[in-house]
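Appendix C reproduces, verbatim, an entry submitted by the partner laboratory led by Prof. M.T., so that reviewers can inspect both the input and the predicted structure.
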Amino acid sequence: MAEPDDFAGVFARLKAILKLYAPKCDVLQDTDEHYYLNTRHIMKNKQPLFFAGVRAGKAYVSFHLMPVYASPELLAGMSPELKRRMQGKSCFNFRSVDEKLFKELARLTKAGFARFNDKKFLEGLRMLQSRK
């Protein structure tokens, strides 16, 4: 277990979860405080679909996972411990490394990546965009 408020360690561990997906995504930002990945799917507004990111803030390190916002059913079966880390619909906040929760978050990220690369999901997204 890391020291409390070891934000650099928390950031590094959360970034490591996302780095697995970098070869199939576009790295939007990669600094000591921000790491963001976009999918290669271009939306109707001609912008790429945001996948996930990590941001080191003053009070905590945030892990943003857009697939859980777009497909909340991915959260079914989420542990109460990870649920307590949620802020909003797609953000998880941490102050220290928690290997158990990071493993669960890695599984959720894998499921989210699969969803954002699912042809049926992307076709449904296109249909929603065309209605607007």
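The chain has a mean pLDDT of 91. Additional entries are available on request from the coordinating office.
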